[in-house]
Amino acid sequence: MSYPGRSATITEGIARAPNRSMYYAMGYTEADFDKPMIGVANGHSTVTPCNSGLQPLTDAAIEAVKAAGGNAQVFGVPTISDGMSMGTEGMKYSLVSREVIADSIETVTQCQWLDGVVVVGGCDKNMPGGMMALARMNVPGIYVYGGTIKPGHHKGKDLTVVSVFEAVGEFTAKRMSDEDFKAIEQKSVPGSGSCGGMYTANTMSSAFEALGMSLPYSSTMANPHDEKMNSAKESAKVLIEAIKKDIKPRDIVTKKSIENAVAVIMATGGSTNAVLHFLAIAHAAGVEWTIDDFERVRVKTPVLCDLKPSGKYLAVDLHRAGGIPQVMKTLLAAGLLHGDCITITGQTVAEVLKDIPDVPRADQDVIRPISNPMYAQGHLAILKGNLSPEGCVAKITGLKNPVMTGPARVFEDEQSALKAILDNKIVPGDVMVLRYLGPK
User: Fold this and answer.
1) Angle, alpha carbons 148-153-155 (nearest 5°)
2) Are 187 and 153 in contact (CB under 8 A)?
């Protein structure tokens, strides 16, 4: 290992004197230069509740880095909120922000010659952006997910941010009172954490755990809970050990481990955005992975979890039912997971899961057994045709009719499409097409 202050020769030592002097200005001592320099990429922001609870986790990681004999180098990472920019021109920055996040982490890590990186993130694009950076740099790293949000409540029902979108439709159709509409708006997001169902953030966090780049159980913990902070501390300790063992992201992120991650995405009913993001992560890691590989995994992987948005449970319920380790063990026992993939802990997937039962507990129905899945095959179907010759992704859970025919209602932007919906100009049977909105 080459730490910034360690000199192999007298000449190199002299050349690095200006480098060390900058660290002395921040309170370092000469002994500190024999310790690994650990970057802590902090996604804390009050722009969104997904990231507003990250500072305590960052502080916990810093404390653990120091306790484990490292020096923590903290730097900021930008974020935006899809939930807040949805339906506005601001949403066009969303996917671009993924690249900005990856570039930010790579720039600081490589420029400051860091020996390892703890990435702390919460909102949708923090996840793939952070993982893309780790894969590109191939410096020992670990992902600390900020955690899911706890559900809101109204009239005995659990609420998530999507409850608000649904309420807009109900209110517009005059099937909901002003009082209920306002209550749902105010109660759906009760505190810090990422959207509570198996939406993009929880999908990616679960996939990172399956990938081996996050600690077991960490992907479904709630942000306000103490176990989330303890997990952040443990993550930093594990990273220090990974540096000693020289375990790098590209040792972990392989074609087989990506298959594991995608299998878990299918089994949990994850977001369509995972297709977009794992294509980019695989590219960053130098792994050959195409859109057709998702379909290959889909057809052999059942949907085991009854989770929102297509089901009824939240990530906190999945956590109580056994979390991602239970989902993974169920898949592993059925021969649907690669148990020999290495994880950031240095253990293989099979070793990490050895004490988890092959069958989910009978006292819960969040995670189904292989013998009684929600759906026999995965829900993220790759489709090809004249509209998308290179392929597209469709979430087919709950689809009563796999063939849809109707007049195409074509829009050039989200605003005019939204106005048509709210003005009741879209009727059952219409097929809405929004074009020219993807990244170029």
Assistant:
1) 160
2) yes
